[in-house]
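Please fill in the sequence for the structure shown.

STRUCTURE ENCODING:
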């Protein structure tokens, strides 16, 4: 049953207990407005004033800060691409597992009878062939890498139910990770705008005014 190929061996079906935090996604530092604007940041290491942020080691140059923020933004975009691909694989995989489980449950009912199971199997794209399957208590599941293993129907059903639970849990975790990642997008974009505006105000303040005649 090909529907289980990825579910039995793919990394997307790793147990939920192996996931920590938000898949190692670094939380973006939130740069607050200056206290001169009346906006006070929370007492949090991830929440800083623009002035204090720009005084940190390595932040002496606005161009360097904007470059680092842009690099961080691009890393978030790359993470989003990877998570979106994993999400797509899981969303395709879960219905396949459900379909295979449905077939196994039907075979469970038929294995005690003497009547053969009439079905169709896929030969090629859009090409099916009729088949007559005698009652059996064995099924073969794809493990991936062109490897197939024979299971008792009960064992196969237990394995697929476990994989279905794991894949569903991982999909929920991916949704949370993507939501968290979108928050980091927004925070980084706000930081870039605030650092840029801070530099514009600093330049205007430092520029000498017109001399009095």
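FILLED IN BY: designer on duty
SEQUENCE:
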């Amino acid at each position: 049953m090909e529907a289980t190929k990825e579910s039995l061996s793919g990394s997307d079906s790793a147990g939920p207990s192996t996931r920590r935090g938000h898949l190692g996604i670094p939380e973006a530092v939130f740069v607050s407005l200056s206290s001169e604007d009346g906006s006070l940041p929370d007492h949090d290491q991830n929440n800083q004033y623009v002035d204090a942020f720009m005084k940190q080691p390595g932040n002496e140059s606005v161009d360097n800060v904007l470059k680092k923020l842009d690099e961080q933004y691009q890393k978030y975009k790359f993470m989003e691409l990877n998570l979106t691909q994993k999400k797509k694989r899981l969303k395709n995989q879960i219905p396949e597992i459900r379909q295979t489980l449905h077939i196994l449950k039907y075979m469970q009912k038929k294995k005690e009878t003497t009547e053969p199971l009439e079905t169709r199997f896929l030969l090629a794209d859009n090409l099916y062939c009729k088949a007559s399957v005698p009652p059996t208590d064995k099924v073969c599941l794809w493990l991936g890498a062109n490897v197939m293993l024979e299971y008792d129907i009960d064992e196969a059903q237990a394995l697929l139910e476990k994989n279905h639970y794991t894949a569903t849990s991982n999909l929920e975790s991916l949704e949370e990770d993507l939501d968290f990642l979108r928050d980091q997008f927004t925070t980084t974009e706000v930081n870039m705008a605030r650092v840029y505006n801070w530099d514009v105000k600093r330049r205007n303040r430092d520029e000498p005014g017109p001399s009095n005649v």
